[in-house]
From TrEMBL:
Gene3D superfamilies the record matches: Type II secretion system (T2SS), domain F
Residue intervals of the Type II secretion system protein TadB-like N-terminal domain: 11-112
Compartment(s) of residence: Cell membrane
PANTHER family, per database record: INTEGRAL MEMBRANE PROTEIN-RELATED, PILUS ASSEMBLY PROTEIN
Protein's membrane topology: Multi-pass membrane protein
Protein name, per record: Tight adherence protein B
Keyword terms, alphabetized: Cell membrane, Membrane, Transmembrane, Transmembrane helix
Sequence ranges assigned to domain Type II secretion system protein GspF in this UniProt record: 158-282
Pfam families associated with the record: T2SSF (PF00482), TadB_TadC_N (PF19360)
GO cellular component terms attached to this protein's record: plasma membrane
Organism: Jannaschia faecimaris
TM region(s), chain numbering: 14-31, 94-114, 120-139, 266-286, 298-320
InterPro entries with a match to the protein in the record: T2SS_GspF_dom, T2SS_GspF_sf, T2SS_TadB-like_N
Length: 325
């Protein structure tokens, strides 16, 4: 490579050469997508359609999509049941046993390393937080994000079904359109409903299983509406349109409440984090302020009590600013 030639280039010439390079790269990528067919929207709409396009068997598709939902019974209580439900709602591609094995191995590694620099009680606490509590918090957040996205997509799916029913399409065709044309997570979930109905499960049972998997109020409303309409008859397309409008109005009201309460949530976050910030600033600027009394026997009990009170304060403030609608 001619280094002197590169050094002699003006900035404008460098920009021109870079634009030519990226333009050629975009043209190559466009040809690659056309030739390979990877731009096919139907194949890439959701995970179920991609698995079908790859030739995966129907049984394996169902097992992959509802791998952890056998544990999603809302009647079970306790931390283990909550963790299992979070796995099911987040649609993690691993089973409960595999996830626990991974977290246990992570806990052993963290404890081995943390015990070299920390006392055993603090090393055990750090291991518990980093290997179990933190992954659970992340998993729970992923599950909530997936369920929120599904609830946001639900009115569009109901509108798509209602339009199909109004022009005379049978129900299984409208379900197939949603499963084919809508992205995850709603596309794959409606694909499961379609598969269950095709295998002989009646319509109310399939939607009731869907509601049990998702466990959201809007989805339970859908299950109840479908069950009532199936038993008493009527215009299902009209019912779906009304339910779609109700779900949209509920989401709009929830967003308004969330915006109004944002000041209270921010104040609660500041009040919770302020003691830690003050302690950090004081300890950094004047290490002897805490260092001179750290060996006193009452120091650690007082610190523990203060930490518990701070955490309790944050929890109470969160409850005061968390409106369930």
């Amino acid at each position: 490579m001619n280094i002197e030639f590169i050094r002699s280039l003006l900035p404008e010439e460098v920009i021109v050469y870079l634009m030519i390079f990226f333009g050629a790269l975009l043209i190559f990528e466009g040809f690659r997508q056309v030739i390979s067919g990877s731009a096919n929207e139907i194949q890439h709409k959701n995970r179920r359609m991609r698995m079908i396009a790859d030739g995966v068997g129907e049984k394996k598709i169902t097992e992959a999509l509802i791998r952890n939902n056998a544990f999603g019974n809302t009647r079970n209580k306790g931390p283990v049941a909550e963790f299992q439900r979070a796995l099911a709602h987040a649609n993690v591609p691993f089973g409960f046993g595999a996830v626990m094995l991974i977290l246990t191995a992570l806990a052993v590694v963290i404890f081995i390393f943390s015990s070299r620099w920390l006392p055993l009680p603090f090393a055990a606490l750090a291991t518990l937080v980093l290997s179990y509590l933190l992954p659970y918090a992340i998993l729970n957040r992923l599950a909530e994000a997936r369920l929120d996205k599904l609830t946001e997509q639900l009115p569009d799916a109901l509108d798509l079904m209602a339009r199909g029913l109004r022009v005379g399409h049978p129900l299984n065709v409208t379900l197939r359109r949603v499963a084919r044309d809508m992205p995850d997570p709603i596309g794959s979930e409606f694909g499961i409903i379609e598969d269950r109905i095709r295998h002989g499960i009646d319509l109310p049972t399939a939607f009731r299983e869907f509601a049990d998997r998702i466990d959201r109020e809007d989805v339970h409303y859908l299950s109840v509406c479908v069950g009532i309409q199936h038993g008493s008859g009527g215009n299902l397309g009209r019912v779906l349109l009304v339910l779609s409008r109700v779900i949209r109005d509920r989401r709009l009201m929830k967003k308004k409440i969330h915006a109004i309460s944002s000041e209270g949530r921010l104040s609660g976050l500041i009040l919770t984090m302020m003691p830690f910030l003050i302690i950090g600033v004081v300890h950094t600027s004047t290490p002897s302020f805490f260092g001179d009394v750290m060996d006193h026997p009452i120091f650690m009990p007082v610190v523990i009590v203060i930490m518990v009170m701070i955490v309790l304060q944050g929890f109470i403030l969160k409850l005061l600013t968390d409106f369930d609608f």
